[in-house]
Design brief:
This protein has an eight-stranded parallel barrel, surrounded by four helices. A seven-stranded mixed sheet has the order 25-32-33-34-41-36-38, covered by helices on one side. The chain is built from 40 helices and 61 strands. Helix 29 (1036-1048) runs antiparallel to helix 40 (1520-1532). The model has no long low-confidence stretch (mean pLDDT 94). 48% of the residues are buried. By secondary structure, it is of the alpha/beta class. It is globular.
Length: 1533
């Protein structure tokens, strides 16, 4: 069973996609998910896709329900869904809060077409359609004989032009009655009806396996339609569209000029009836400007009569009238108000505006007269402006008339209409005139007689380059007066208005017409779709789909842009757009169209069944010729018909042609003037017979073979396409089936130029075809024969008898006349290639080969597919079993991977270059591109994630795979070298790759991807099964972050942690490669990749314990967490935990905070892990039992953990003061001498831990100046000496916890003992805890009271309502800097804060410090703030040089976790409303981290960003504490 196809639409705020096409198939599921801009908001999604059992109504929307599979607060997986089962166009929109719509678009669902008595499915790409001009079919009882030609030529769909009664012009698209069947189809004494047509269509469907569609024309009706005479309101006439009056006046005047020219009245002015040259055109211009325009005075329709306006104004002034300011909304310029009835001089101006603009200087008659004169002058100016505008219109009208006459009567490519007559007027009439014409003056009087002027109806036509979304007959358009319409004078443009209420008769009439069509035909072709009003087509198609839900809608669109095409395709649910091969000027362009209109590239990747919904181009109906195109035999050559047809047939979309092309009719079959009948089918027909055709006629035999091939390729899944331009005339099109790896290659030699006049080369390049040629599917060429020359028949549409197709089908290569030889060559061990040398590939010939992989490759691919079924059932097709399968492949990969530990997973999936190098390897480097991020599978998968969706087979990654086995061997050999279970996985890869290496190189990228994706997903699934239930049941985002634990936690080749006590149970061991002894192999936590991943710089006390809770406790890695806690405990010295671990032996004890983070982790371990307090009784091997000890081996001195904890507390209370060992440049080349002096003590009055000096930095903000040039070398940027706020919070948290433990009998100590002045003193933990509690708010809160007695330095306060960053710093102003550290104290010791103060401080931090991904490390209002970190910059700037601003602005990620957790914690205390707003903020912030991780090739979160989230190249790309604290936020939610 194939997996259900699911497409995901990610919604982004304010994203309107109504001009983007999204196509879906029936049976697909569409999921709407929230993009980062919407996560956390209350989003509602509405759609008009009908609910189960409901009828579709365009304007009826309903909301979709949200599904949250993890049931968590995190929005990354939340979705709502639509099961798409009905074809059509459906709209969706979404909004949030009080915003009803903040984005939306359309989804188009393709119809499913069924054919034959058994109703089998006809895929859209299978369609081969042929167009018929219906009037040329003759009586209905002769149709089958004529239509049989289509059946016998292998088409499976017929397109009929309208079957309705035609208008006077006999154009196929000018219909006199939309509801009546054309009476021409009924022979004398017989009346056929729509039912008879329906029966015929049904017979064709069931017996011939062919479907029928028919045109619908909504734009116009024939000028002689009887119903339009009864209902003139259905067109644009002078009563309902008075804006057309000036254009009508011009049109009548031009008619009278026609009559005058026809009657010879202008011959004396050099204008005869027969117009032949440019002098005659110049004479026409003279007549227009001298006789027509001055006489009809069109400008008068747009002007005002000045004197009556001035009189009205004078009366108002004399009566003392004042402007009504409520109407004018401020002073408006005086403008002409157009008379809605368009009478001459019928326009007015707004008198209120006149009073506003022209104010008399007094009430005297003179002042009033002056004011009237000002108005008079202004009105005359306005009239002059109108006159000039009309003059511009007349100039354009003159140019358009000139162009039309030139084309109609002079141009060589025009129709050469001959003399001007009343039948062939000078220019086409724009309006109907159903009355006897008199003089122009008498005609123009009819404008004022509504009972007559309602019958002057505007003709339809098209406007070059016009906006298709604008109706050119509506007010605001000047197309008719400027004579820009290319007019069809046989049809009247229909006026629908905005809806059925505007013209009830027309809407009802056209709905009936639509329903007749939908009842009998499987689909419609929207004629002239681009000028059909969208709302009309939408309404009519809704009516059609009510009768026939799987309506196939084809359209011709000439909008000039794909974006505009999409407006029509999406709104109307168009299934296929007509595309013309005749638009190609050469074979290269024709081949490019094949590539553009469908199919994937050969060797494309298998896409997952759940994937993003991506925009598509409209499905194509690619026609070698349409009934509107000029005749290709005239434009190209008769020899091109077959090869161009073959190129089209090889396209992976619907294809087709027009009746007459296959018979080689050498002229265009005109939709207007053609009245002859199509020929009938007769297998015995003579070549010279004009009324009958058979397989020997024209290219019919070739077309039959091509249509069969087209349909076979689509049915059998040959959906990959490659187009090769062999030379300027030869195009080779390959269609490839991705499951069987069979190909069909068609080589077509086009003949765009006539061979008689163009010398085609005899040298045809040879071709290399990869694989084994099974057969020649067909070879065909157009040849001349003795059958007489072409004579146009009077009664039948006949083709050229002197040409036929010589064709052979399904022959062996040796029997080919076209191929001289085919040598077999082998390029490398897996490239089996046949070189084709052509003998007879003459212009106009085609050869198609069926190609398989060579038998060995075919078997290897089959076996490979068999082994891939475990990952995806789609590989069943084309799979084979191998009797000699290696044992390693006999069981599923899951069985091997399930034996792996999470530490093994680190090696399988991750490891950056530094880690790989430590193991003696390195990450794979793609020459000419760049190295991969990881040695493990993630390194490869990150690249493939970019390459796969785009099928970017030209990417250097794919090139490298095709060129050699280096990357393939790297994957397996790297794992085998690790030994153990990893080596087993390596052997599995090696066995799979043994097949992969011997298949054709062009297939290697897609199968390599399939193997790796299968292995990766299996490994990731097994990984999560080994983690906590929080991760297993978590969202995608939770799982992504949890993988960070695998990324950071590794066992390297050399141990990073000191050895644990031998007395400790459950410690992992391995045999050392170097000593061959049994050694511990505990997981250690890297601080960040790539900079802090290997060697001495991998493990840091502070980083480890900030990250441990999130990456190890939350993910359920309890044992490994325990080992890390105990390993660091063993290195304690001076009561401190090392900063840089250096395996303990090279440890530096130069940080004041690591020990407090370590204590916090032990507390978290005790509370989060089942029986977690057992850790307190675990043995710790002390490496330094005294401050001066040499490093001791594990097991020499063991203590229980609780004793080590107590020692740390006691040492702080006693006071820690020492000088670092080996102080000097050998351990720190930048530190000044004083910086090596370490101090950490407790203030006995406040209980606050304090320490440090201005030459060292003992907290995480630990940047030491390095620039001699800027004179900051040896000076810390952020010493944070005194009592750092987070250390006070962590200390308070530890004290509270130890008091609780003591009360529970789990910790034997209740106080710390110290020696002072020779006396032993003690302080209880409770008292210490209480002192901090009593003093914290007093000392750290910056209150709003300027006279706060606790404020030591009121002059340094620059922000109130915040918490200080430190207390008692040597530079007092540093205490008052706003930084994000106080939020850490809020999370670990919330009891220190009053809720209101905490909330205000958090809001200030949100406003000032919160960035897109991280927190600004310093208030942007601070004078030393700089948000861009550049460690390489060395200049004179003290605050910047050599990255001195590392913690003075750049946005670090890990503090954001504490900030958000603090917000959540305090919001809960402030009520539901605040909590909900906070959850929105949190989700919104986290969504940006989710997007970053999704897109990051490192699959991590960085250490820091520059200001406003900009990328920082000096940051670690993925940092342990960044991942950990964000995961903790999700855990809190």
């Amino acid at each position: 069973m194939t997996a259900k196809q699911i497409r995901v639409m990610v919604l982004n705020d304010m994203e309107k996609l109504d001009r983007t096409l999204f196509r879906m198939e029936q049976g697909y599921e569409l999921q709407f998910r929230l993009g980062p801009t919407l996560q956390g908001k209350h989003v509602h999604v509405h759609t008009n896709y009908p609910t189960e059992g409901e009828r579709f109504e365009h304007h009826k929307f309903h909301a979709l329900d949200w599904i949250n599979p993890t049931g968590r607060e995190d929005d990354s997986d939340k979705f709502c869904t639509l099961d798409l089962k009905i074809s059509g166009s459906y709209q969706y929109y979404f909004g949030h809060g009080d915003k009803e719509k903040s984005g939306g678009g359309y989804i188009v669902v393709d119809p499913v077409l069924r054919v034959g008595a058994d109703n089998h499915v006809l895929p859209l790409d299978c369609i081969s359609i042929q167009t018929y001009l219906s009037k040329c079919l003759g009586p209905l009882d002769e149709w089958l004989d004529r239509l049989r030609v289509t059946k016998e030529t292998g088409y499976n769909m017929i397109h009929f032009t309208p079957l309705q009664t035609l208008g006077e012009s006999r154009s196929c698209y000018s219909l006199a009655d939309q509801l009546e069947l054309n009476p021409d189809f009924s022979p004398p004494g017989q009346t056929y009806t729509w039912t008879d047509v329906g029966s015929l269509v049904e017979k064709i469907k069931n017996e011939w396996n062919m479907l029928c569609i028919m045109d619908v024309v909504y734009n116009h009706t024939a000028a002689n339609s009887k119903w339009i005479k009864k209902h003139p309101e259905c067109g644009y006439n002078l009563v309902n569209s008075p804006h057309l009056k000036p254009a009508w006046v011009l049109d009548r005047a031009l008619w009278h000029i026609t009559c005058a020219i026809a009657d010879g009245k202008y011959e004396d002015r050099g204008l005869p009836a027969l117009i032949q040259n440019h002098e005659h055109l110049h004479a026409i211009r003279g007549v227009l400007w001298q006789d027509v325009f001055p006489k009809i005075k069109l400008w008068e329709f747009f002007q005002v009569k000045v004197e009556p306006m001035v009189e009205q104004f004078r009366d108002l002034l004399q009566s003392g009238a004042k402007p009504d300011r409520s109407k004018t909304e401020g002073k408006q310029q005086l403008k002409i108000i157009q008379d809605p009835q368009y009478r001459r001089f019928g326009n007015t101006v707004d008198m209120n505006s006149a009073l506003e603009n022209f104010v008399p200087h007094g009430n005297t008659p003179g002042a009033i007269e002056d004011c009237c004169n000002w108005l008079r002058r202004r009105l005359e100016e306005l009239n002059s402006e109108q006159y000039h505008e009309i003059r511009h219109h007349q100039e354009q009208a003159t140019n358009c008339i000139d162009g039309t006459v030139s084309y109609d009567r002079i141009a060589d490519h025009g129709p050469k209409l001959g003399p001007v007559t009343r039948k062939h007027p000078l220019v086409t009439r724009y309006f109907t005139f159903p009355f006897e014409s008199a003089t122009l003056e008498q005609d123009l009087e009819l404008i004022n007689q509504p009972e007559k002027s309602c019958h002057f109806l505007a003709h339809n036509g098209w406007v070059m380059g016009d906006d298709p979304l604008r109706n050119f007959a509506e007010p605001g358009s000047n197309v008719y007066i400027r004579r820009e319409l290319i007019c069809w004078d046989d049809s009247v443009k229909l006026r629908y208005g905005n809806g059925p209420e505007d013209c009830p008769y027309l809407w009802a009439h056209m709905q009936k017409y639509t329903e007749i069509t939908a009842k009998h035909f499987v689909g419609v072709r929207l004629d002239n779709c681009h000028s059909t009003p969208l709302h009309v087509a939408e309404f009519m198609l809704d009516a059609a789909r009510t009768l026939r839900p799987d309506l196939y809608v084809v359209a011709e669109l000439f909008t000039g842009s794909e974006e505009l095409d999409n407006v029509f395709v999406t709104r109307l649910g168009i299934s296929s757009l007509i595309r013309e091969a005749m638009s190609a000027g050469d074979s290269h362009e024709e081949g490019r169209l094949v590539y553009r209109y469908g199919g994937e590239p050969v060797g494309a990747f298998l896409q997952p069944s759940l994937r993003p919904l991506v925009p598509s181009i409209a499905h194509a109906m690619f026609l070698d010729v349409t009934h509107d195109n000029e005749c290709p035999i005239q434009i190209r050559s008769v020899y091109d018909s077959l090869p161009s047809s073959a190129i089209v047939s090889m396209a992976c979309c619907a294809t087709g042609s027009t009746r007459g092309y296959d018979e080689l009719v050498p002229h265009q079959i005109s939709v207007v003037s053609e009245e002859r009948f199509y020929s009938k089918w007769n297998p015995q027909a003579k070549p010279s017979s004009p009324e009958e055709v058979n397989l020997q006629s024209g290219i019919i035999a070739g077309k039959l073979a091509l249509n069969r091939l087209h349909q076979e390729l689509a049915t059998k899944g040959f959906n990959q396409v490659f187009v090769d331009q062999v030379d300027e005339d030869i195009v080779a099109v390959t269609r490839h089936c991705p499951s069987t790896h069979q190909s069909v290659v068609a080589v077509c030699r086009t003949a765009f130029k006539k061979p008689k006049h163009h010398r085609y080369s005899n040298e045809v390049p040879s071709m290399c075809i990869p694989g084994k040629i099974e057969e020649v599917v067909l070879e065909a060429r157009t040849v001349e024969r003795q059958a007489g020359s072409y004579i146009k028949d009077e009664r039948n549409i006949n083709g050229m008898p002197g040409y036929t197709v010589e064709i052979k089908e399904h022959i062996q290569l040796k029997d080919s006349k076209v191929v001289r030889q085919a040598g077999v060559t082998s390029r490398g061990r897996s490239e089996y290639v046949q070189e084709i040398v052509f003998e007879q590939l003459t212009p106009g010939s085609v050869i198609a080969f069926r190609v398989s992989l060579d038998p060995k490759s075919q078997d290897l691919v089959g076996v490979l597919r068999h082994h891939l079924i475990q990952f995806n059932p789609l590989y069943k097709a084309g799979s084979l079993t191998d009797p000699n399968t290696l044992d390693i492949l006999k069981s599923p990969l899951t069985e091997i991977i399930s034996k792996m530990t999470l530490a093994d997973m680190n090696a399988l999936l991750f490891r950056c270059d530094a880690e790989e190098k430590e193991d003696g390897g390195g990450c794979y480097n793609i020459p000419g591109w760049k190295p991969l991020k990881y040695g493990g599978l993630q390194g490869l998968l990150s690249v493939m994630a970019d390459v796969r969706p785009k099928n970017d087979l030209g990417h250097p990654f794919c090139d490298n795979l095709r060129q050699g086995d280096w990357m393939i061997d790297y994957v397996s050999n790297r794992l085998i070298s690790h030994g153990g279970t990893l080596a087993e996985v390596g052997q599995w890869f090696k066995a799979m790759f043994a097949y992969l290496k011997h298949i054709p190189r062009y297939l290697i990228p897609c199968y390599f991807d399939a193997i790796l994706v299968g292995a990766y997903t299996t490994a990731v699934d097994v990984t999560f099964k080994q983690m906590s239930s929080f991760v297993q049941n978590g969202s995608t985002f939770v799982k992504l972050l949890a993988l960070g634990s695998v990324q950071m936690c590794a066992v390297g080749r050399f141990p990073a942690l000191p050895t644990l006590s031998p007395a400790l149970s459950d410690v992992p061991y391995r045999v050392s490669e170097i000593t061959k002894q049994k050694v511990q192999c505990c997981v250690s936590l890297a601080a960040g990749l790539p900079h802090f991943s290997a060697g001495i710089f991998r493990c840091w006390g502070r980083d480890t314990f900030i990250a441990l809770r999130g990456l190890m406790l939350v993910t359920g890695r309890h044992l490994e967490a325990r080992n890390i806690i105990l390993a660091f405990a063993g290195t304690m010295r001076h009561g401190l935990i090392p900063n840089l671990l250096g395996e303990g032996v090279g440890a530096r004890f130069n940080c004041r905070d690591a020990v407090w983070w370590w204590l916090q982790c032990i507390q978290d371990y005790c509370t989060m892990v089942p029986s977690g307090t057992d850790i307190l009784q675990c043995p710790v091997s002390r490496m330094y039992p005294t401050d001066d000890s040499k490093p001791l081996t594990a097991g020499t001195v063991d203590q229980l953990l609780y004793e080590v904890i107590h020692e740390a507390m006691e040492r702080h209370m006693q006071g820690i003061e020492f000088r670092e060992r080996k102080a000097g440049p050998q351990i720190d080349c930048n530190m000044r001498d004083e910086g090596f002096n370490i101090v950490a003590k407790v203030n006995p009055d406040t209980g606050f831990v304090y320490g440090g000096n201005r030459f060292n930095c003992g907290t995480w903000m630990d940047k030491m100046g390095e620039s001699e040039r800027a004179r900051n070398k040896g000076i810390p940027a952020t010493p944070r000496d005194g009592s750092a706020v987070e250390i006070v919070g962590l200390c308070k948290s530890a004290l509270r916890w130890l008091v609780e433990l003591h009360e529970q009998g789990l910790f034997p100590y209740n106080s710390v003992a110290i020696h002072k002045d020779g006396k032993q003193l003690s302080m209880s933990y409770e008292e210490w805890d209480r002192k901090i509690q009593q003093n914290f708010e007093k000392m750290f809160y910056v209150s709003h009271d300027p006279n706060d007695p606790n404020e030591k330095h009121p002059e340094l306060v620059h922000k109130r309502g915040i918490y200080k960053d430190s207390y008692g710093a040597s530079s007092p102003w540093c205490d008052y800097q706003l930084r994000p550290n106080f939020s850490i104290a809020m999370v670990v010791a919330p009891e220190l804060f009053t809720v209101e103060h905490a909330w205000e401080a958090l809001n200030i931090a949100e406003e000032k410090l919160l960035g897109p991904l991280g927190m600004k490390t310093l208030d942007p209002d601070d004078m030393v703030y700089c948000g861009v970190y550049d460690n390489s910059l060395d200049n004179d700037n003290y605050n910047l040089a050599r990255g001195f601003n590392y913690h003075q602005g750049p946005e670090w990620l890990w503090p954001i976790g504490y900030f958000l957790r603090a917000k959540i914690n305090f919001a809960k205390k402030l009520g539901k409303d605040t909590y909900e707003k906070t959850v929105y903020l949190v989700k919104n912030v986290l969504s940006r981290h989710y997007v970053h991780m999704e897109r990051s090739s490192w699959k991590g979160l960085p250490e820091l960003t520059n200001e406003n989230g900009q990328y920082c190249s000096f940051s670690c790309e993925t940092q342990a504490w960044s991942l950990a604290t964000v995961l903790e936020v999700l855990h809190d939610l």
